[in-house]
Amino acid sequence: MKILAINPGATSTKMGLYDDDKEIFSQSIPHYKEDIHKFEKTSDQLNMRTTLIKRFLKEKDINIKDIDIFVARGGPFKSMESGTYMINEQMIEDVLNGNVLADHVSNLGCLIANQLGGNRPKYIVDPVSVDEFEDIARISGLNLIERKSLSHALNMKMVAKRWAKKNHLDYNKINLIIAHLGTGISVSAHKKGKMIDINNANDEGPFSPQRAAGLPSTQLIKLCYSNKYSLQEMKKMLTKKGGMYSYLGTDSVPEAIERMLAGDTHAKLILNAMMYQVSKYIGAMACVLNGKVDSIIITGGIAYNEVLNDIIKEKTGFIAPISIYPGEDEIYALVMGVLRILNNEEKVMDY
Length: 351
Hints:
- By secondary structure, the protein is α/β, with parallel strands linked by helices.
- It has helices at 33-36, 46-59, 89-96, 108-117, 153-166, 217-224, 231-239, 243-248, 253-261, 265-288, 306-316, 330-342; strands at residues 2-8, 12-19, 22-30, 69-73, 84-86, 122-125, 175-181, 185-191, 194-198, 295-300, 322-326.
- Helices cover 37% and strands 19% of the residues.
- A 6-stranded mixed beta sheet has the order 3-2-1-4-6-5, with helices on both faces.
């Protein structure tokens, strides 16, 4: 089967063409700020991104009619179980009508796949809104606010299953803690195949290269009512210009590490603090799992940096063995989700 996987991001659309599990090619199509900012809504970018994909396939001399299956990253739709879902009219309508948890670029995935795929099979896999919380995990501490499950589910579910397969174990019978370290950081507890708790990287948990995440609430309230910042400025400060960026003026982890190794003690403090907070949340998820943890898995782009992995290992290695799966191979994860359906390892989910 020829499978085209599509992953729309803020500044690019990544895609990969596979023959079953064998990669034919992968490509990242860049989008420039001036092209993106002219669209009022994220969904307005649909035709622009679809046209660029078609143009690239034509340049590669690939006939879109020869592609059997289309699969795309799923966004923050309504709360959903983990799995591979057939793209249907209701999903398309919900995205176009804004009946989703957030207006996020990943919502474009199902729209692009639907437009390219026509009547052929079209899927999304483990969307951002995968929700397998136990009821106790939804309690926030204020009855007007409920904790939400929004995360890097696609990558975390993939590395969980890869680790289980490598170790000849059944993902549905083990307990894992998975820390996805990227521009946002998600730390999750997986209990017998279910992701039962996780921090929403925009609201809580460790700070990251861009996101402030969990903050002292009363001080945050005072900042909001200081009349110094608008609502949009506050949102940008917390999700784009917070975290490491607010301290060091960069969201580039390699740059921050380079500064640290050159003797910048402030950069060293901030990097250590970020990994300190990640380690604290790993410890918290160990408590969620009653201390019964088969492995801790560190993944995401930051996991390429051994100097930071070592900080986490030193602080959490007593909990369970630690494995490193650097990067976020989401295109491959999408293809694997389709192949699990084709190989009858999982059943297709209904949206």
